[in-house]
Amino acid sequence: MPDIIRTTIGYLAAQKIKIDKNEFAFQCKSHPDYPSLLAVSDTLKFFRINNGALVVNSSEIELLPDAFIAKLKIEKSNPFFLVVKKNKLYTIKNKESNIVKVLSLEELKSIWQDMVFLVENEKQIEDTSSNNAPSYFLNFIFGSLFVYIFYTSHSNIWDLIFMVFPIIGMILSVGAFKFVLNSESEFLSKLCNLTGTSDLSEQNSNSSCNTVIRSSKWKIFEKLNFTDLSITFFSSQIMGLFFMSLYNLQAQYFSIQFSLILLSTPMIIISLYYQKFIIKSWCSICIAIILTLITEMLFLTIFNGFSLLNINFDGLAIYGLIHISILLIWSQIKKLLLAKNDLEKQEITSNRLKRNYSLFRSALTDAKRIKVPYNPICSSNLDDTLNLDILINPYCRYCKEPTKMLEKLIADYGDRIKVSYYHNIDLDTTSISNMQKLVKNLLNLRLTNKHITFSNALIDWFENKDENSWFPKYAKEFDETVVNSILESQRIWCKENKLGLTPTLFINGYQYPNIYEIKDLPYYINELLDDNSLKNDF
């Protein structure tokens, strides 16, 4: 996760603002100006978190709150740091570089660059993290059954202790593979910076792990990937011990493991040489994996002993089958993970282009501007607002999400926007349909009540679409003449402008471009509100 995103998430945590970290990172990377501070600011606004960048002189540092993001002059580092004040001392933190240093006010002034970034914690932000409870529950059940079966089939405590080593190795190996996917965690970042220096100007990021794990300076590492070897090796150890113990083949298992670890010695030496003399950078995760292998070898030598005589064809066949199965399974899982990672990168690149406001505005204003008729079904009576006019059909399933999105924008931006709903209904038919009755009652609700009452009724309909419950709850007597007059003017407007498909959205008279999805409107809303040229002559 890039530095500016890590620093911002750390700042939000310090301000006790909850946010979906993965979603925030994805939306920020999708911004056209990423990795700038503007991308962070706009993304926070998208999450309804007020924020701003300010110019603050070094003489005004003491006036700042206890936590903020500041631009500091430190070599070999991203310039934006989380600054936390406590007892007249300032702790500066750079999440990716793992820089943590306590400075006095004078020391902070010496590296100050007159820019701070602040957020407001006005209200609790909805945490949009997905609910993983079912997945956690299934993993817990699987793990519990695995441990129970493994424990009951072993009378030797040393066998149980040995299982800890491949589990640790597996966790480290999966962590190493995360660097291939560029999705490392904060724990991995800290682990990868264990070899860093204490000098503030010389500390670097976890690029050492990235450099080693993703390096292909030697052609051998193009075919013989370090992460693949470690994942399949430790996975085979775990599953091999589990299944071979069911056949009372523990002695053969440990002899096989000792032999394999001995055979891996050249690979360990090559890895250390590669890091020291070729890459000239140490990978803490790789060192930890190597130490795990050495610990396993010492454990087997001291506590289990070994003998090549314990190895026979049956043991080799079972372990070989397990290892080949894991190789095949991992090759498929890896393909899926890499494909998913590539698709995410493509989506981010595509979103940067799609969310470029200049391109969106150009597509929006390319069409002819349409004059929309007066409509009392609107969220505001103010004139100097951003007008969002939408043609909907209550029975159209595609209108549900745009309607909910617009009502959410009304809740977030209030009178800064005016949302109006239009309908294309033929009143000349002899029979009165349920859609006519529904639309007329909705219109009457807005004529006789505040927008919130109309909004609740509209959302209730789209959520349930139950005529038997909706009409008794919201239907009232109304003046047919007034309601029919408004609906007839909307029908004529639709006919004159050849409008029939729903939903159709207009922004200050410009029809929403077909190449963009209506659900993406929130990404442009702040810039639309600031774009006064769209309001000219409207």
Distinctive features:
3 domains, 538 residues, 10% strand, four-stranded mixed beta sheet, Cathepsin B, Chain A, alpha+beta, Glutaredoxin
Give an account of the 3D structure.
With 538 residues, the chain is an alpha+beta fold. The chain has three domains: 3-119, Alpha-Beta Complex (Cathepsin B, Chain A), CATH 3.90.70.10; 135-349, no CATH class; 368-535, Glutaredoxin (3-Layer(aba) Sandwich), CATH 3.40.30.10. Helices cover 55% and strands 10% of the residues. The chain contains 21 helices and ten strands. It has helices at 3-14, 21-29, 37-46, 105-110, 133-152, 157-180, 186-192, 207-213, 220-223, 226-246, 250-263, 265-279, 284-304, 313-354, 357-365, 400-413, 434-448, 451-464, 467-474, 480-496, 525-530; strands at residues 51-55, 67-72, 80-86, 89-94, 99-103, 112-119, 386-391, 417-422, 504-507, 510-511. The strands form two sheets. Strands 1-6-2-3-4-5 form a six-stranded antiparallel β-sheet. Strands 8-7-9-10 form a four-stranded mixed β-sheet, covered by helices on one side. A hairpin with a 2-residue loop joins strand 9 (504-507) and strand 10 (510-511). Helix 2 (21-29) crosses helix 3 and helix 16 packs antiparallel against helix 18. The longest helix has 42 residues, at 313-354. It starts with a helix and ends in an 8-residue tail after the last helix. Mean pLDDT is 83; it is low at 196-207.
